[in-house]
Amino acid sequence: MKTKHSCFIIFLILLFSACSSEKNTFTNRMYHNTTSRYNAYYLSNEKITELENTIKKNHKEDFSQVLPVFYPIDSATIDQSEELLKDARELSSKAIDWHRISKWVDDNYFLIGLIDFYQANTDDAINTFKYINVNSKDKDLRHRALIQLMRIFIDQKNYDDVIFVIDYLSKESKINKENRFHLFKTLAYYYHTKDDIEGKIGALDKSLPYTKDKKEKSRINFILAQLYQREGLDALAYSYYQEALKGNPPYERSFFAQLYAQKVAELDKSKDLKKIRNYYDDLYSDSKNKDLRDVVLYERALFELKQDEREDAVNLLIRAAKEEGSNPIQKGYIYQKLAEISLENDKDYRSAKYYYDSALTHFRPIDPSYAEIESKKGILDEYVIHFETITKNDSLIQLSKLSPEQQELIAEKYIKNEEDRLLKEAAAKEKPKNSGVFDNLLAFGGRSTGESFYFDNSVAMQQGSIDFFRNWGNRPLQDNWRRSSQGFSSSGSSEIEETNVPQAEEAEESLFEQIPSKESMLSQIPKSEEDISKLNMELEMSYFELGKLLFFDFKEPEFSIENLENLITSYPNTIKKPEAYYILYLAQKERDGNSQLYSERLRREFPESPFTFSVNNPERASGNLAYLQASNGYKEAYELYQKRDYSKARRILRSTLEENPLTRNTDKLLLLDVMISGKLDDRERYKIRLENYIQSTENEELLKMARNMLIALTGENPEKDKIAAAKNEDEQVSSEDEVEEDIIEEESPYKENPNQTHIFVIVLEPEKAKEAKNLLAEIEAFHKINFASSRLRTGNMNLNKENAIYIVSPFNNAEKAKEYSAKFLKEFESNSLTEKEKEQSLLISIGNFQELNKRKNIEEYRLFYKEKYK
Question: pLDDT over 90 for what percent of the chain?
């Protein structure tokens, strides 16, 4: 008994002595190794694995694009998992603090590095992985840390460091299988960012033998198949799609693997069209594919387009858009294809605009198609504004010419036609229902489902909605107890009370609201001359803008001519007449028409217009060179004007306008020419020229100045106003002079894209950049305090010999970037930056940054930035 008692005491002594985190004894090490591994490390690792599974689960694969090598990290998912990561960090931190002599300390550091990586604490993550690489005795862990470090460098596009890590690992021996898998997968990601398809294929192919997870192996095989398919290697693509079907993949991936395998093997090559159509019909009918019917119809539509069956393809795409589907992105592709058909085949720009609008609601800003559509949609939006203005205003003006009785008849006829249309749509939706036991029971009562039973008859329900709306107007659906509780309050819904109605039902019930009331229609018809004049002004502008768009942006000279000739015929005194003549001249010239007609009209009616100068001198310089020459000519002429050498100033001005017509300096050159006219020509000539200038210029400052000059000339102002006008004139021309030094490209290579991803840029001289060694670290610290959850990245590069730039990205749009810039300017402090350097920071869209990187001219972009962002 004594012996047992003694053993127990000895055991307790050993146990408690093992709790020490300092004593490096066998018992102590065994205790701390066991506790650190199976308590803290295990639980922390499980939580990180849970996060990674959540990232996979929340990611919706877009099978129309090559699948990403790594599942994208969504900041929303990270935010939702904040508590999970906090617990994981605490567990690993305690393992390090409490079990310092454990051999699992470095493993816990690695987990902390992963947590920092997922939470976008990039600097901390880099420092942790570097620490492991330098200090850890575990070779496998060091390799894993380096691979994770390489992934961060790729995210930052810090390719010099990526290459250094690759070179280092290539010389390392005995990299274990798990690390080899991670290494080759990360290499594939690297080659993807460099647009090296061959490198990406090679790296993914090498990762396959080291892949333990069958589902992961299936996904990699699917990516390889997609890459081979895009490279036109159909046999290899088919083989990898077949491999992707192994390993029990998710049903959706399995479906696409089978579909694409059939496409590369047979569907794209077979001449048996009936067999292919039957294949798509079978896919559509398969109940397992209920959530993928929109995909089947979309793929069938693409097939029909290849057969030049455009009408069938459009009908299939419209059907596909109506299917529920499981992936919203697929709807984006459907609407995008409908837009492309409307745009390229039908020249139906209005439909294309609305299809693109629908597509954008289903794409995310990070999707490749989003930026592509955004870049196309701007001119389509503008087209539709002017097209619909012409259609609407023209109709309203015509209606205003009718009697009130005729107007009422037209409104009633329109409403009746709309009611008939809705009833026809309801009838088209009616589907015969299978007879069942309840139909048989109802048959004894003399009725059958869907015929006389009101709530089974959509036509009757639609007619009821229309009748109700006609008699009672648009009233909210409410039960009696809700009405009584409101007493004498408004018939509108209470702010407190909300009724959750399924979206489909809401759409069904609100169909009758599409019909406007007769009163609302009649109220839009203009009643006074002032209303009609306003509509005519809008029409005049829209005819011109539409004609201009159609020629320059849509390359449609025929349609452009039609709109501009309507403008000139309907509004012969339009101030846009010289420019309209000029565009008609260009359009007729392009189609080998009668361009001479419009060049002669320009010379006869507007001999001093810049458009006439351009017609007379078609081969002159343009762009930056023209602007520079015009700037120099203006400066020289103005100096002569100040010296009262008016004749010589006029010769230089006229020569400058002939050599460089239609630059951004043209309005200033013309106004100075008018001012010289006031010194050399008679009073009436000067007055006419001033009036013509006022009618034609669009520059607000120069317009104001010309008006003051006219007031001073006609004597309508007191003498003091005349002096003020003259003073204003001199001040304005002098202030314009200050801008002359800057060269702005006549048509900027940069485009305004506020919805594109944006970058924040700090510009420094190379010597100053060398001194600013801590700037990136200070910016990262600023982010950690103010933008911890934004996943912002930083980097730097030499743009050219004169400029080094520091970059912060990404921002979803210009608005987000402006918010960041405002906070940066207000709160960021650093010895590396002066206030002036901070204030000269820029915002730039991804598309414009690529253009800037080609052109290397920061001052050129700065002028665009001041105009569009300031």
Answer: 26
The one-character DSSP state at 475 is -
In what helix (H) or strand (E) does residue 613 lie, and over which residues does it extend?
Answer: helix 610-616
pLDDT digits (tens, 9 = 90+) for 653-668: 877 876 777 777 778 8
Question: Token match 């007769």: residue?
Answer: 518
Spelled out in words, what is the top-level CATH class assigned to the domain 529-606?
mainly alpha
Neighbour-count burial of 404, counting CB atoms closer than 10 A to its CB (0-12 exposed, 13-18 middle, 19+ buried): exposed
What CATH number is given for 623-739 in this structure?
Answer: 1.25.40
Q: Exposure of 613 by Cβ count < 10 A (0-12 exposed, 13-18 middle, 19+ buried)?
A: buried
Q: What is the per-residue pLDDT across 582-604, written as a single tens digit (0 to 9) for each?
A: 889 989 988 889 989 988 998 89
Residues 23/17, Cβ–Cβ less than 8 Å? yes
**The domain 271-398: what is its CATH number?**
1.25.40
Phi/psi at 238 (nearest 5 deg)? -60, -45
* Per-residue pLDDT tens digits for 381-417: 999 999 999 999 999 999 999 998 998 898 888 888 8
Q: What is the secondary structure of 172-197 as a DSSP string?
A: -----HHHHHHHHHHHHHHHHHTT-H
Confidence of residue 337 (pLDDT cuts 50, 70, 90): very high
d(CA 165, CA 726): 70
Using the CB atoms, write b or e for 454-481: b if 16+ within 10 Å. Answer: eebbbbbbbbebbeebeeeeeeeebeee
Helix axes 293-306, 310-322, angle to 10 degrees: 170
